[in-house]
Structures are given as C-alpha cells and as structure tokens.
Amino acid sequence: MLTRPGTLRWLGIGLIIRLLIAPFTISADLLAVYWRSHLIAYDGEVFSEYLVNMGAHYTHALSLRLLDPVLPSADVLWTDPWWWSDSAGLAPQIQRAFVDTDGIFGTLLALKTPYLLFDLAAGVVILLMVARVPARQAQRAWAFWMLSPIGLYASYAFGRYEMFAVALVVVAIWACESDHPWWAAVALGVAITMRGYPVMLIPIFALVAMRGVTRQAAWTALSLLPLGLVLWTNTLWADTLGEFSRLRDFNTGATFFAYTLPVDGPGPIYLFGLFAVGLYVVLLGRSYDWWGERPPEVSELWVWLAVFHAGLFALTTFSAHYFAWFTPFVALALARRPTWRGNLGTHLLMVVVVFGLADLLGGPGTTWGLFQPLAPDLADAVPNLREVTLTSPDLATQLAGGFRSAFIAVMVIWAWPAVRELARSSGPSSGPSPTRP
Questions:
Q1: Average pLDDT of 266-291?
Q2: Three-state secondary structure of 107-132
Q3: Closest Cα to residue 189, out of 247, 231, 132?
Q4: What is the widest separation between alpha-carbon atoms in the chain?
Q5: Listed residue (326, 396, 336, 394) closest to 360, CA to CA
Q6: What's the predicted TM-score (pTM) here?
C-alpha cells in the first residue's frame, strides 16, 4: 500500500504543501517551546516555571542537538533573558529579532522537521490500519491526511507539536487492533508526557482493550508509568512535580470547565465533565455486562475515541491548533465508514468555524501574521475580525457565541452516525468477537 502510485502521489503533493508553509511561518509558541528546550539541550537545566509536557520538551531538546549542523549557533538563536517577565510586550520584539536572523527560512524548516516526522508517521500508521479496506477508501484517508487544513495549520503554520501526541495515540489504537494491548499502554503513556490530554483516554482504552479488573488496573498502571517517570525527573531537576499540578494556573486547565450549567447553590455542573464521566460509565457497564448484550469490541475502540473527542471539542474552549487531535478519526472514518457521508464536509465546515474564531479572538498573530518571515507587513495589510470588532465588544461577543454555537451543532451532526453505531453495537455481535486478554 505504501508504494502504490496514488499513495506516492499524495505524499508528494503533501510534502510540497508542507515545504511551502513550514519555512515561511512563525509563532511565539514555536519559539517558546524551543527556548525552554534549549536550556535542556545546551545548559543541562529546565525552565522550572513551566514543567509541562516534558516529554515534548525532551524531544525538542534532542532535536536541537541532532539539528545542530544545519542551525545557527545556539547563542545567536536563543538569547537570554527571554520574554517571560512581560510576554505581551517582549514577545513581538523577540520574534521580530528572530525573524531577522540570517538564514531564517532554513532555520524554521529545520525546527519544524520533528513535526514533519511525527506527522508522516501518524499518516503511515493510519494507512496500515486501513490496509484491508478497499484501496479507494484507503486513498481517501491518506489524501485527507496529506491535505488536512487543521493538520497543516497546527504543525507547519502555527508550529506546534500536536503531532507528537497524535502519532502516539494512533500507534496505541493500532497496537490494540493488532492484539498488542500492552504496547498500546506504553505508546499512550508516552503520549501523555507529550501532551496531557491523552490521560483522559486511559479509561476508554482499558475498558475496551482489556477484560477483567486486574488486567485493566495493570494496563492503567503501565500507561501512567511514563508520566510517573517524568514527574520523578522533575523533582530531580527542579524539586517540583510540574505537569498537571500547573494546569490550574493556566487558561489551558480552565478550558475543560468553560461550559457550565448553573444550579441553585454553589458548584455549577461542568458539561464536559458530565459528558466524560457519562461515557466512562457507559463503557464500564458494557465492559462488565451491566447492560447491553455484549461488551465493546476492540474493533470499536476508534469509534469510542472519536465520540469522546467530539464531546471534548464540543464542550470545551480551545485554540485552533488543538483541533489537530481530532483529525485521525476523520481519516479513519473516510476509510472505514464510507456510509458516514457527511464526515468530510462537516469536518471542513468545523475547520472554517475554528479559523473564524481564531481570527476573532487572536487576530493576525494566529492567522495571516504567521507569515511574518515571508511578508512582515502582511498582518497589517489583511483585514481580520479581531480588529474589525475592537470598537464593538458586544459584536465580538455575539460573533464568538455564534461561532461556538455553530461548531457544537456541526460536531453533533458529525458524531451522530458514530453514536448511533455504538448504540446499536450493544446488541448481539454479528460475528465472532476478537480475542482480548
């Protein structure tokens, strides 16, 4: 499958598009993670004020060392001090100085090479996962992966390491489907060190891929082991656990509790928490035969995960690049569920809404302004929703509400076939269930 003409053609097109974006775009987020990682790579220390996603920081640090021959001197790229004392004021200045360094296009391409490798790895694993479907459907999934607007944006335009975690989550699903659930626990565990969100996927994997409380508990423990090792190293480096203990101090943690229902008394109902716990309980009951006529099958794992991610994005606030976490399920649905006819169209509509919301809330710094290395004046030349609504905050609020409402509606439409399939799957199996440990 990897050597089919169609596969190679889409690979070539995808690589060309990536090479047309990666060298010419920059964001403060890209510089921030590499600056923190350069402390590990060259100074042998960590930025103890931000010990989060340390697996990703170690990966960036290793990349810096491997990329040394094609990068300018570290003393030129990663000047001290950085912008942390006044990020709003200093970040634009430091980013401008970074853009003005010699050979900036080659530097940006080199810095995004790890993202390219994880991106392509995830796509190849998805191809392997759909090897048994008709070739035309598999090619649709591969073409989508090569052309995914939100994937291209997250990895190459905005320059974020979302594919580190996404690739490992995909590997974990593939390992489960290939009857290697323990390797899936390892892959998911490493994904958690790259990005915290896969920790919420542990109950789904454990309840679908394993049978029996002892094995499920052991699987969970193994999946948490990499995070435990990272927490331990954090205490050695900086005498603090870091990671999840920091979430409450940042907007990232608050996003999971953004959608609420008020009650007559203290303590609102958090909608995403309600959804997540509800899905876990449904799976728990299915796994232990409390309801339904059969437990969930491993072949259904990706569908359960797709529904979970649908709820995650529908019931939380998020930045545009996070939506890349959703793309593997769109690709798998294109190959495995051709009857989900609205899959691609509704996803692309969601992407339009996500970009619109990003332009409204973040302005050119999250959209056209990313092309600063190529055209420094582009951010000021192209109109954006944030500037248009600066003098009318009520209109900005209404637009944001409209975008969020539209996104939820379209996501419900996207998820409906998956929810219906899982509801029907609680009945008798149409064939032999795959053997599970």
A1: 94
A2: HHHHHCHHHHHHHHHHHHHHHHHCCC
A3: 231
A4: 65
A5: 396
A6: 0.94
Contact 226, 193 (CB under 8 A): yes
Query: Over the stretch 7-19, which tens digit does the pLDDT of each residue have?
Result: 999 999 999 999 9
Q: What is the DSSP letter of 269?
A: E
Residue 333 CA to residue 141 CA, distance in Å, equals 8
Average pLDDT of 101-127?
97
Q: Find out whether 155 and 14 touch, Cβ atoms under 8 Å.
A: no
- Nearest Cα neighbor of 280 from 223, 347, 199, 226 is 199
Q: ∠343-349-355 over CA atoms, to 5°?
A: 135
pLDDT tens per residue, range 390-421: 889 999 999 999 999 999 999 999 999 999 99
Calpha distance 352→329 (Å, rounded): 18
- Average pLDDT over the chain reads 91
CA angle, residues 286, 291, 293, in degrees to nearest 5: 85
What are the backbone angles phi and psi of residue 242, rounded to the nearest 5°? Answer: 65, -150
Q: What are the angstrom distances between the C-alpha of 69 and each of 22, 32, 66, 366?
A: 19, 22, 8, 30
Tell which residue, 200, 130, 209, 121, has the closest CA to residue 168: 121
On the question of pLDDT at 428 being above 70, the answer is no
> CB-side exposure of 384: number of CA atoms within 13 Å?
23
The three-state secondary structure class of 227 is helix
Average of per-residue pLDDT across 202-223: 97
Tokens of residue 146, six digits: 């090569």
Helix (H, G, I), strand (E, B) or coil at 290: coil
pLDDT at 317 exceeding the cut of 70:
yes
Domain borders along the chain are 5-424
As given in the structure block, the two tokens for residue 396 are: 């900005």
The CA distance from 349 to 426, in Å, is 31
